[in-house]
Design a protein that fits this description.
- With about 170 residues, this protein is α/β, with parallel strands linked by helices.
- Helices cover about 30% and strands about 15% of the residues.
- Strands 3-4-5-6 form a 4-stranded mixed sheet, covered by helices on one side.
- Helix 2 (about 35-45) runs parallel beside helix 3 (about 70-80).
- It is globular and about 45 Å long.
Length: about 170
């Protein structure tokens, strides 16, 4: 009901796009780890009349291992439902959860960065995400955009940068 109410309020406004940065359910109850839950959210999100970008949160895939489910299979299920074509949106080949677009002279970049203890920077999927970020920033610079906005689910742990750890 709350999502339906929110959708009505969103649709009442003229918006260039809508972004949701993940966790469309709780992993504690494993609801976000089920196909039925994801399919119901997809039906609800389809009612948003504006271009809609959904980024996955850790509850939709990486946390599903806690419930004995394969995180990669859960990410594949998420991709199947939510990597639809959106006008003006470019998705990373092979990692469609990462996206970029421009509006109003500004660049927008969406990344799949799971929360929890922090991303595994040695993971091939995370390496592809960081490559997409670098490429997207270079492209934005080439296009001389006025502002760059980066969306992702996880805590970037900026307070740890420069302390000699994996985030520096």
């Amino acid at each position: 009901r709350r999502l339906s109410d929110l959708t009505g309020r969103i649709n009442a406004h003229e918006l260039a796009f809508v972004v949701h940065v993940g966790d469309i359910g709780t992993s504690a109850l494993s609801q976000a780890c089920s196909d039925a839950w994801l399919e119901e959210r997809a039906r609800q999100f389809a009612k948003i009349r504006h271009p809609f970008v959904l980024l996955p949160g850790d509850n939709e895939w990486s946390d599903c291992a806690r419930h004995g489910l394969d995180p990669q299979a859960r990410l594949a299920a998420w991709r199947k439902l939510f990597c639809r074509k959106v006008a003006g949106l470019e998705r990373q080949p092979g990692h469609c959860e990462n996206a970029r677009w421009q509006a109003g002279g500004m660049a927008f970049i969406g990344l799949d960065v799971p929360g929890g203890a922090g991303p595994d920077l040695t993971d091939a999927r995370m390496a592809a995400t960081l490559e997409w970020l670098d490429e997207s920033l270079s492209l934005a610079e080439e296009r001389r955009v006025r502002r760059i906005f980066v969306f992702f689910h996880a805590d970037p742990r900026f307070e740890r940068v420069g302390r000699g750890d994996a985030y520096a």
